Amino acid sequence: MWHPALRKGAKPIYEQLIEGLERDVINGALPPGDKLPPQRDLAYRLKIGVGTVTKVYAEARRRGLLTATVGRGSFVAPSGEAKSAEGNRTVDFSRNISPHNAAAARLGDALIALRRRADLAEHLSYPPPAGVTAHRRAGAGWLARSAGIVDVDWKRLLVCEGGQHALALAFSSLCRPGDTVMTEAATFFGVKALAEQLGLHLLGLKMDDQGLLPDALDRAAAGGAKILYTIPTLQNPTGRVMGAKRRGEIAKIARERNLTLVEDDVYAPFAQGDGLPPPIATLVPERTFYTASLSKIIAPGLRCGYLLVPDEDRLERVIRTVRAYSYAPAGFGALIATQWIEDGTADEIATSVRREIVTRAKLTGQILGKAIEGPHVSGAPHVWLPMSELTAERVAGRALREGVSVTPPSAPIVDAREMAGLRLCIGAPADLAALERGLRVVESALSDAPGVSGRGVV
Question: pTM of this prediction?
Fold first, then answer.
């Protein structure tokens, strides 16, 4: 019976499993016709979620590695079997990305404009560790327009290779192995991966419909925890938004308990026009590491993000971390981002993306109805479907068998006693037709799931 070896701290479990399965099929360790272990059995033996194994088996069928028969199980496919047409129609709700048609349509003009820049060749050299001055100034301007941080001191701003890089720099400069970082009970999977890599302990705190509860934060801080990671705007995975009063309460506790905050605000541009309060960083700038990114709203391939640090001393600490990890940020993605920010293209793209996401959110609400929590803003790129952990695994598995992938239910959960559900990223499907096809599969999976109330169109 197939029993792959997994290495802790290597690639994500899903990637290890699918690569191992493909390798064993190709080299003959798993000959055609061999039966694979039932998904639940393999998950139990590997001590991982059933949803992860289900996703691996579904991807293996899409690649033509496996065949499956209801009631009999999954078998290694005959050698050379082609991928099915249905497999090629997979709908992906698992990646939190937005349609980048608007960026793609403007990329050619951007590259032509780059050729005319007098400073183009300078970007072949190493930039300063904090980024090129023009890029930092442009980033400060973008934060003022897209997130409401007025009077940003660009000298405290670093250019990063996306939001994940900004978070890695913040936590690496703030924490030592064994430190506790407080988060919402469900949070961004990238921070869970960082915590594992850096040897940090995550403490999930109770939430309500505005996100993090001040009382929960105060109790945890009284117990000695000193670092808080939070996503106040369109919290990932729930899409919840902190109101102005709640942000003030969190800031007050941060001062009283001498906390350091890492505020992840990559989704702020999606909430423009919905009366979004200013970031917590504007209330306690002296103790907040603030991260933002163009990946979500403009294009992930730019790999351009920003980290705003509290003061010069901590700026120097982060710069030392930059030098240790990458020496300097990449220059060309930031150059295109800067050009688009300066000439107004970034605002045009963001407006187009928001319009598309609003359309997708309306369609999602029409099909899934009250199974969705919220929505909390009109243009949320991800939606949350609260349900029990077991039900979430069943719905995810059913959807995967129909060619629709969702975020694995366990991926964002820090404290399973407080949170369970499914996240759907509605910006990832290729177009509205693919979105609707995927939503109909999820709708059908929900209709067969026990314990999911309020289903159906509203």
Answer: 0.81
